[in-house]
Write a structure and sequence with these properties.
3 helices, 2 domains, 12 strands, 39% strand
């Protein structure tokens, strides 16, 4: 049962122009009519929907990745995440990213609440999951050339402390960890 008030009616879109498009992202300029009748442009960042996975080992430890991010030039803690390929189900993308980024698999993937990480400028949506009882894959990870990643297992209590202390600065990871910890009691 939702406690939200009645939603507003959507703005009328008068036109839409693609300003930029690549295999990674796009930028669109829409002309919209506001409720009072005034017209305004609205820029929309287009990026494929994504998944984020909190991998839990059988002993309750969390698999984190220590990853370099070019866009801000920093290395920090994250959980596996990635884009959903065209036609791919979010659950399949979660299994794929789990294998690629941390070299593990799971038989039990639990859906967590998803979220819009940048909803003021994009319809981009993140599907969140917790992967229970992860097991090491024989082939290991499959990182892309642009990915600099180390995989680390950390006790849940340490990850909870890192989250509280702001050591996990990636929004995808922080929110997914929060949801996972609310759902999965400590062992």
């Amino acid at each position: 049962m939702s406690s939200a008030p009645r939603p507003y009616a959507p703005f009328e879109r008068l036109s839409s122009t693609q300003l930029y498009h690549s295999r990674w992202c796009g930028l669109r300029r829409d002309m919209i009519r506001l409720p009072g009748g005034r017209e305004q442009d609205y820029h929309v960042f287009e990026v494929d929907d994504a998944i984020v996975v909190v991998p839990l080992l059988p002993n309750g430890d969390v698999l984190l990745v220590w990853q370099y991010r070019y866009v801000h030039g920093r290395t920090h803690w994250e959980v596996p995440a990635g884009r959903i390929h065209v036609g791919e189900a979010p659950e399949l993308a979660a299994h794929r990213e789990l294998g690629e980024e941390v070299g593990h698999s799971t038989q039990r993937l639990e859906r967590l609440p998803g979220f819009y990480p940048i909803n003021g400028i994009s319809p981009h949506y993140a599907h969140a999951f917790v992967a229970h009882d992860c097991e090491l894959l024989p082939g290991g990870t499959a990182h892309e050339d642009s990915e600099q990643i180390e995989v680390h297992a950390r006790p849940r209590a340490e990850v909870e402390r890192m989250l509280r202390d702001g050591e996990i600065a990636d929004g995808f990871s922080a929110l997914a960890l929060f949801y996972a910890f609310q759902r999965a009691p400590p062992r």
